[in-house]
Specification:
Layout lengths: L2 H27 L4 E11 L5 E2 L2 E3 L5 E3 L8 E11 L4 H8 L4 H20 L1
Antiparallel strand pairs: 1-5, 2-3, 3-4
The structure holds zinc ion.
Zinc ion binds next to loops.
């Protein structure tokens, strides 16, 4: 009647201890789950002559810096380890191919059935 909930309960035999272990790693060993990722940062312009996006050639002769196009900032590509960014319950559900949206829908149906039963 609630197949995805049943699958989740069955999977909990493995996901519960795995989740406890990951929590223990985090709390006791300060271990975080990280993945290699890339992102962009805005850094101050690296042109030595650039002052807030402009190059001064003398009195009243300021031209936009060609490197930052007058913004004073340049986009820099970076890469490194970043936090996984997936909550533990979702990660464990992914591991066992549990659809948490279906689980939530089944729970709602279950609650409605209980309320209807209580009201009858
Ligand atoms: Zn510049």
């Amino acid at each position: 009647m609630y197949p995805e909930c049943d699958r989740m309960v069955e999977a909990a035999k493995e996901t519960q201890p795995a989740g406890d272990f990951i929590e223990w790693l985090r709390e006791e060993k300060h271990v975080s789950l990280m993945v290699w990722g890339s992102w962009q940062d805005l850094d101050p312009c690296t042109n030595m002559a650039c002052e807030k996006g402009y190059i001064h050639f003398g009195h009243d002769n300021n031209r936009p810096c060609p490197r930052c196009e007058g913004t004073g900032l340049i986009t820099v590509d970076r890469e490194g380890y970043v936090h996984l960014g997936v909550p533990l319950d979702q990660l464990l559900a992914q591991w066992k191919a549990i659809d948490l949206v279906k689980v939530e829908a089944e729970r709602r149906t279950m609650l409605e059935a209980l309320r209807a039963g209580a009201g009858a």
